[in-house]
Amino acid sequence: MATIPNENTGDDDLVTVFGSVNHDAEMEAVELRTLLEANGIEATVVGPATIPSMEFQVQVRRAQSDEAKRVIEEAREAGPAAAEEAEAAGDEAGRSVE
What we know:
The protein is of the alpha+beta class.
């Protein structure tokens, strides 16, 4: 997992843009981290993998938190079909390069 240095300069402070205690919280947190990183936003997953009843969070730098929230909201509005379409488009792009 990516780690973000915390130098306490204000904009580098980490803020939570997602949190969940659902049974699939870890999986969703990892998926959101991947989404954010694909959009140029450094993110980290925080949570205890050994205690599933505790909250998992995705944290980003404060300076990127508004953009991160926008990316997450757009992805949720687009739904799973858009994710599958984007993945298929990525697969096709990879094949044309070979």
